[in-house]
Specification:
By secondary structure, the chain is mostly helical. The protein has one domain (about 5-240). The protein contains twelve helices and no strands. It has helices at about 5-25, 30-50, 60-65, 70-85, 90-105, 110-125, 125-135, 145-165, 170-190, 195-215, 225, 230-240.
Length: about 240
């Protein structure tokens, strides 16, 4: 598929999810939704393992030396986690969502506006949005965004059942935010070597493991605080190679 296809699929999934939510969502029992979320958590874990497997690519050992790729991922996660926790990145992302919700979805306004704002924040502010869009832009495939599209489909279904058609309008937000991040990843790929992209991919795979654990309710890892690791990985490769 073409670069950016993941975002297009995501927008379509939200629109379809909204339609199903407005029309027939009330017929789905809670136990069905729970089983689906558990299944999505397992699939996320599978994709995380496949993505992290980039660490065993022979070109990494040839360029960086034996054992260094794992150390770079370790250093990236540690430095990224320290940086993210120091500036409270996860808290800031959540705070941004709360502020935007308070600003645009004031009490007494239509459910259309409330549905649009609430869904936009849910679909556009999160680690998988950033990681999936940049990976798609780098040419690493749209699997993460397709997985996110599936998650967003069920979220849109639930939101639309309560808030109506405003949830579908959040597709505009997805198109702008994820499309912009995908373009950023595309241009970033023109400046990074293949080895740097591989290390970024492997590091991103570990973050995806964290998302899988959150979906499965194993541990609520603050993946948002670890996002700076995606910056450290290619920088460390440039220093060590």
């Amino acid at each position: 598929m073409f670069i950016g296809s993941g975002t297009v699929i995501n927008v379509i999934s939200v629109i379809i999810g909204t339609f199903v939510g407005v029309t027939i969502a009330h017929r789905l029992p809670a136990r069905v939704r729970e089983v689906v979320m558990d299944g999505l958590g397992l699939v996320t874990g599978m994709i995380a393992v496949l993505t992290t497997a980039a660490i065993v690519d022979p070109s990494l050992t040839e360029t960086l030396g034996k054992g260094r790729p794992v150390l770079i991922v370790l250093a990236s996660i540690l430095l990224g986690g320290i940086s993210g926790a120091a500036i409270r990145l996860e808290d800031r992302l959540e705070s941004l969502g709360d502020k935007l919700r308070a600003r645009f979805a004031k009490e007494g306004e239509s459910t259309f506006t409330e549905g649009f704002v609430a869904a936009s924040l849910l679909f556009c502010i999160g680690p998988m949005t950033i990681l999936g869009s940049i990976t798609d832009g780098l040419g690493g495939g749209n699997e993460m965004l397709i997985l996110k599209s599936t998650l967003d489909f069920f979220a849109a279904l639930a939101f639309a059942a309560a808030l109506g058609w405003g949830v579908a309008a959040s597709g505009i937000s997805i198109l702008v935010v994820q499309g912009g991040l995908t373009l950023f990843g595309f241009f970033l790929g023109n400046f990074m070597s293949d080895v740097q992209i591989l290390m970024l991919t492997a590091t991103g795979g570990l973050l995806l493991v964290g998302i899988s654990m959150r979906l499965l309710n194993i541990k609520q890892i603050p993946v948002g605080n670890l996002l700076p690791a995606l910056l450290y990985a290619p920088l460390l490769v440039a220093l060590l190679s």
